[in-house]
Amino acid sequence: MAEYQARVMDPDTGAEGRYPFEGPDDMLERMGAARVCMHFLENVDRNEFPHQHVNYDLNAASKSHDGTVVTGMGTLIFENGAHLPFVALISRA
Q1: How far lies 47's CA from each of 4, 19, 42, 54, 65, in Å?
Q2: Is the pTM of this model over 0.90?
Q3: Distance between CA atoms of 78 and 24, rounded to whole angstroms?
Q4: How many domains, the chain?
Q5: Cα dihedral across residues 17, 53, 79, 83: positive or negative
Q6: Lower CB count within 10 Å: N or C terminus of the chain?
Q7: If pLDDT is split at 50, 70 and 90, which confidence band does 86 have?
Q8: Is-contact 20 93, C-beta < 8 A?
Q9: Are 4 and 21 a contacting pair, CB within 8 Å?
Q10: What is the rounded CA–CA span in Å between residue 16 and residue 9?
Q11: How large a percentage of the chain has pLDDT more than 70?
């Protein structure tokens, strides 16, 4: 397993956070951009919000030209009905 980080920005407030997570050693090379984002978002559901289920709508995902950064845009959907738009930049830590 390799260490990755996601820098997540809230476009409404400008708030930003960094979230470390683990993934397969070759995740950025082997997986498509959407699958990399889904791997991170599943980690968010399990580890960042363990007391409530977090679903998501992933609206767009792309890789940088050299494949070292994945960008994802979408909305986190919380169990209580709250919706939080996000932009995530995912890379090796």
Answers
A1: 14, 10, 9, 11, 30
A2: yes
A3: 27
A4: 1
A5: positive
A6: N
A7: very high
A8: yes
A9: yes
A10: 4
A11: 100
Q: Residues, the chain, total?
A: 93
Output the six-digit token pair for 61.
Answer: 């995902």
Q: Give 81's DSSP letter.
A: S
Residue the block writes with tokens 């979230």? 19
Residues with Cβ within 8 Å of residue 69, at least 6 apart in sequence: 63, 89, 90, 91
Token pair 């363990």 in the structure block, residue: 50
Residue 72 has a CB neighbour count (10 Å cut-off) of 24
The rounded distance, in Å, linking the Cα atoms of 38 and 29 is 15
